[in-house]
Amino acid sequence: MVKYLTVLLLFFCSLANAAEKNPWYEKVDGNIRLNVELFTKSDCPNCIRAIAFVNEQLKQQEWIALNIYTINESTDDLMLFHQRQKKLGDADYQVPSFFFCGVRYVGFRSAETSGKELLKSLEYCHKNIKDENQLSAATRKVLTRWSAGPFQQVKESEPFSWQNTFLMAFVDAIDPCSFFAIILFLSFVVLSPPGKSRLYLGLVMLMLMGLGHYMQQAAAVFYYHSLFWLRAFAVISAVAILWWLREIYSNGRFSLAASALVAASAFFITYLFQQSCLETNVSLSFQAWLQSLELPSWKTFAVQAVYQLFYLLPALLIFLLVLYLYGEKKSIRRRLFAQYTAMAFAALTAAVLIIHPAWLSSIMISILAALLSFILGWMKLWWKERNDG
Predict the structure, then answer these.
(1) Domains of the chain (ranges plus CATH)?
(2) How far is CA 322 from CA 209, 316, 326, 381, in A?
(3) What is the pTM of this model?
């Protein structure tokens, strides 16, 4: 009996040790060493540049353990490449591909662009593992964001132009990931007290949208690490939304100060979580391009400010259109439908903030929430007209 218990204990200990061991780094004499894997092809020009860079730069770093694989010359290398991609949900077989810290960086242009971004990411991961004694989810999120933004899309420095700035800001503004935040913004506008206060509240939320967008664009490290302690504020915001909706439904009105506080704070928290969407990274590509220009500080700040204004322009136009349509007194039925739909969407947002705020960055959930809100709004209007009739 003792023998079987000993074997069982050793088995569970081995499982625990295996779970604790992270394949992306190891401790050597008390120091952290990152495991970096580069997959290449022998006939790939970008791979040749990537190999030259890692041999010149990375092999000199004692905290990096580098392995280079050639997938068109070794079946074992190809199978390992397939396993690495499968674990991350990829299946494109693009090379060169760098795997480290649980993320994948694809492509390589030059040492001055891609090489610089790669080294920055490696140093960031190494420092965070040392400081936190683990490879945290926040660190991986930052690296994933960088891998899909600056690293993949950074180019040799192109001349500055306002045309490029406007184009990238416009594409960034119509990103499907912003759908949830835009609908919530319009919902709060509809639910806010009428008159000039509605206009002022909308402008305040637009400014908060610009601030949140700037945070994830220019301060990605701070942004992703802040999402974890913002979880408590998400729950508080959700409770505030539900309280606000209850007062509106029961009394028909709510104080201006309370409406402004609830709407502005809840919208800002929602927008911050929504910006964690990783489908597109236009803003980070713009940030990498802007940094590569090495403009004077005052001009960089000015370009950033103009970019945020361009980014907010579509939302501002939609906001003004909704104010015009919702403000027409002759269409009471349309106004009631808008109010019921807005209340339903705000309630669904509160539920998501409580259950799992990361869902706010899901395009599919955003669409489903909007459709469900329209259905609930129409049902509520139908029920009211049926009872009044």
Answers:
(1) 19-134 (3.40.30.10), 162-384 (no CATH)
(2) 18, 10, 6, 19
(3) 0.69
